[in-house]
Amino acid sequence: MDLLKFLPNKTCVDKLKQCNEITPFSETILKFGENPATGRKYTEDERNDKLKQLDNLCSYETLEVQKCCDSKNKLYNGIDYRKLNKRGKRIIKNGEVIGYELCNPKHQEDCDENYKVLNQKDLCRLSNNVDKLKDESLPPSTKIYDLIPDCYSSLCSNSRSVPFIYDTMVVETDHSEELKMLKSVRDDNLDDLNDYYNDVGIEKINEPLHNGYPGNTILHESISYGADKCIDFILTLDVDLELKNKDGNTPIHLAVLSENEYLTYRLIKLGAKLDKRNNLGDSVLHSAVRGGNLKIVNLIIYHNGNLLSKNKLGETALHTSLVGPKKDLKIIMSLVAGGSDLLTTNNNGHNLMKSFSVFRRTPKNEAIRTYIQQQVYLRHKEKYNEIIKEQPELSFIETVDSKTGKKVDLRKYKFDTLEIEMPTKDIQNSSLYFDKRKYPTKIFEGDNKNIEGFTSNNETNGENNQLEELEALEKGLDLKSCDTMCVFKYSSIALLIILVLFLVLKLKK
Fold it and tell me: How far apart (Å, rounded) are the C-alpha atoms in residues 387 and 396?
C-alpha cells in the first residue's frame, strides 16, 4: 500500500497556461534509478540536489511544483490493482473526476455494482489518502475530494530539448524522422505515416509529438491538416480520444472547430466524450458554436450535449454564440429551441443582451437582438414585468425622456401588467405594404390585336381597393354600395350647388 505514494509523477506546471514546464517524471527514478553522471544509483545528497534544482527552476510567479497522475507512468504496470480490491465510485463534474465515494473493506456486502475496483489511475489520484484507504473504522461509505490532479498532456514549449531527469530506460527516437513524417501528413501521405509507426512502435500513437503544435498527438495534427486518409488509419488503432493538447483541446474539439461534420459524427460514435473541457472551460458544444457550423451544433445537441454548462467565463453555449465572431441566427435559434437559459449571466453579471450590446447595430445583429428579446417575453410572460425591471436590456420596450430624447432606466417605472402582441412568423409582406405606383396596361378585345384602351394593373390588387375604401370613408362615402344610385346622388348634389350659386347671383343683382 505504501507503494501508492510513488504512483504520482512530479513536474513544474505553468498554472496560467496549464501546461508542463518540464516533462513529468517519477521520483522512483531518483530513488532506484541510475545517475547518468556517475553511473551509480542516486545518493541521498544527489536526490536532494535534484529536487532543490526543481524548486529553483519552478520559482517564477506562474510556475508551481506539483504532483500529478499520468496513465503512461511505467510504475502502473508494477501494481496489480485487482489484488488490492479497493472499490469506489467516481464523482464526476464537467467531465472531470473531482472525488471518490469509497466502500469500506469491512462492509463489502453493502457495496452495490456501482462500486468498481479502483485502477492504478484512481489509486494515484487518491495517493494523498493512503491512511484512509487502509482505515477499516471509517463509515461504510466515505467521500474523498483531496485528489492529485491529472498531468497536463503537453509541454509549454517544444524548445526544451534537454530533459530535467534523464531516464536511462527510455530510448528517444530521432525527432528529425518525426518531422519528416509530419510533413508527409500535411500532404495526407498515409504510406509515410504507416512506415514511421511501424519503426517506432504502434503503441506510441497516443504520445504527444516533439514537433508540431505543443501537446498534439498525431491524431490532433491529422485533424488540423484535414488529412482524411491518415485520420481513417489512426482511428482503426487503439487511439485515446480524450488526450488534450496545450490548449486542452481533445480531437473532437478540433473536429468541431474545423467544421468537419463527418469526423465529428464518427468520433461521437467511437466514444468521444462531449463534456470534456479545454483550458477555457469550453465543452465540445462551446467549441462547435465557435466553429459556426449549424449541422454540427445540432448533432451535439441531439447527442445530449449540455446546453446549460458554463465555461470559465461563466458563459453557456448560447452566451458564447452571441459574443463569438461567428454569430449565426439559425444556431442561436437551435440553442434556444433546445432549452438554453435565456436569463443566464456570465461571471461579470452580464445577461445575454448586456454582453451583446457592445456590438454595433447591423441588420444581422438587430435580427438576433429582436429574436432573443421576443423569446424572453414568450418564455417568461408570467414574470416578464419583474424580469425587465431587474434586467431592462432583455426588454424590447425603451423609455425615452420626451424633452431630452435620452433613454430612461426602465426600472424607474411602475406598471402592473403588460400585454404585448407580436406578428406571427407567417405574416405576408403583402399584408404590410401597399403598392402606391399604378402602371397602365393595354386592353385587347378578344383576338383583336387593336388596342381598345388602358386600365390600371392594380385593380387585381386588393390592397389598393382597401386604400380607396379608406380614402372614401374619410370623405363620408361608401364605395362598397356605390352603384348607379351613387352616380345619381353625386349629380343631384352638383345640380343643387349650381342652383344655389344662381340664386345668390340673382339676389346680388
Answer: 12
pLDDT digits (tens, 9 = 90+) for 276-325: 999 999 999 999 999 999 999 999 999 999 999 999 999 999 999 999 98
For residue 406, the SS3 value is coil
Q: Is 89 helix (H, G, I), strand (E, B) or coil?
A: strand
The overall average pLDDT reported for the chain is: 80
Kindly report the number of other CB atoms within 10 A of residue 448's CB atom.
Answer: 8
- The verdict on residue 480 lying in a domain is no
| Cα 48–Cα 53–Cα 57 angle in degrees, nearest 5 | 150
Q: Which amino acid is at 219?
A: L
In a domain, 505, yes or no: no
Residue 347, CA distances (Å) to 17, 359, 376 in order? 20, 19, 21
Calpha distance 500→407 (Å, rounded):
59
Does the residue 364 lie in any domain? no
Within-domain flag for 129: yes
Q: Which amino acid belongs to residue 145?
A: Y
Angle at 301 between CA 296 and CA 304, to 5 degrees: 130
256 and 291 Cβ atoms separated by less than 8 Å? yes
Q: Show the domain range for 77.
A: 2-144
Task: Note whether 156 and 20 are within 8 A (CB).
Answer: yes
Where in 123-270 does DSSP place strands (E)? 141-144
Is the whole model's pTM more than 0.70, yes or no? no
DSSP state, residue 345? B
* Closest alpha carbon to 376 in 341, 334, 425: 341
The residue type at 406: K
Structural domains of the chain, count: 1
Instruction: Compute the half-sphere exposure of residue 491: CA atoms within 13 Å on the CB side of its CA.
Output: 6
Alpha carbon distance 55, 49 (integer Å): 10
- Is residue 235 within 8 Å of residue 269, measured between CB atoms? no
Residue 310: closest CA among 357, 348, 345: 345
